[in-house]
Amino acid sequence: MDSKFGMFQSDPDDTAGRPAVCPVSEVADSFDPFSAEYLHDPYRFFDKAREREPVFYSSELNYWVVLKYEDVTSVFRDPETFSPVNARHPVTPICPAAADVRDSLDLAIEPSLVDETAQTHKHHRKIFGTAFTPRRVNEMEEQIRAIVDRYIDRFIDDGEAELVSQLLYEVPALAIFLFLGASDEDAVFVKKLGSDRAIVNWGKPSEAEQLAMMHGMGEHWQFTKDLVDRAYENPGDNYLGDMVRIHQNDPTVFTINYLYNVMFLMQFAGHETTTQASANGIRHLLSDRSQWELLCSDPSLFDNAVEEILRMDTSIFGWRRIATRDTGIGGVDIPKGSRILLMMGSANHDEAVFPEGGKFDIKRSNAKKHLGLGLGAHFCMGAPLAKLEMRVILEQLARRLPGMRLKPGQSWEYLPTLVFRGVQKLEVEWDN
């Protein structure tokens, strides 16, 4: 497989790690991650499966599915045995027409941070993580607050809003682009590609969706190159400027193409996940009125509320690995080459770690132990910024719209993907 297109190709050998005799169980047979029932509430399946068969093989997907907290953490902590190189491989094979478009584009995609080998990741994470300084994050707070207030101002007199489209869709994109040093107009352009990329990489897209995504990818890649090249000529006082200066001081630490790839990745990962996590969290807060009223009355709870949101219904509730050798998970033999699906959403509800794991409680004492942002070497580098954004959004909504409530009768729509989760519409109302 040409590694530069790794994120746009399926695994080169779909039979690798597939057991000679498929051990299809009742649990495995009932696992249908793209069904309407599962998308609406995967936690019902997780709770049952975690008790009956916490590691099972899905012949439909050719993945070993891992559900318990202890087992998921053991995989995260051993990136040598459980490689992340398949993290961005499309779940659904790219159709020939989309592959032709891909091959015609001037792309130089390579593994970066989330899907590179353990040693390479360790080297790059030290460089890019070190530049992700507390100062860079903390200086964003008032700017993010001003952005949130600007969006709330647009609908506060209406008595109602659809929070995803009117607040949560664009604000995280504006925040990450402010952090990187790009314009508001650029943020909106890139944001439009986010949902398409999630479906194409981790869902069951139609050929039309694949084609549309591939055409947009060329524009996005060229935009990213231009963004980095401009910063190279005139590095600003922002994260991208810091990374450019590191490269200018020592071009051997990473290539300019690797910098293109990291910026390309961050423009997706740095906002789409925050949008979805915020939407999930506000839904849970307003579904249990006592939790929302408690948060509005006690500002000291905002930080822990963010952690509980990421535990209860995180936006990245699954992730993928490949076994580099014959090994085992939770007492189950895992052959070399096996594809592994880590269900962090299940692990975050594991009552061995989180008593009454299905209950949303912003005062939960160990909420920070959640796996919603990964663990170990691949713990989300942007976690401090994502948590800051979520906290500021909650603070401003609680301060300015404490009487906000869910509109009755609405249904919850989710993107049909294997690993991402977020309500697509969130209708609220209040009395003016």
Provide a descriptive summary of the structure in words.
A hairpin with a 4-residue loop joins strand 1 (55-58) and strand 2. The chain has a five-stranded mixed β-sheet. It has a three-stranded antiparallel β-sheet with strand order 4-10-9. Strands 6-7 form a two-stranded antiparallel ribbon. The protein contains 19 helices and ten strands. The chain has a single domain (3-429), classed as Cytochrome p450 (Orthogonal Bundle). The protein has 432 residues and is an alpha+beta fold.
Can you give me a brief rundown of this structure?
With about 425 residues, the chain is of the alpha+beta class.
What characteristics describe this protein?
432 residues, alpha+beta, Cytochrome p450, three-stranded antiparallel β-sheet, globular, disordered N terminus
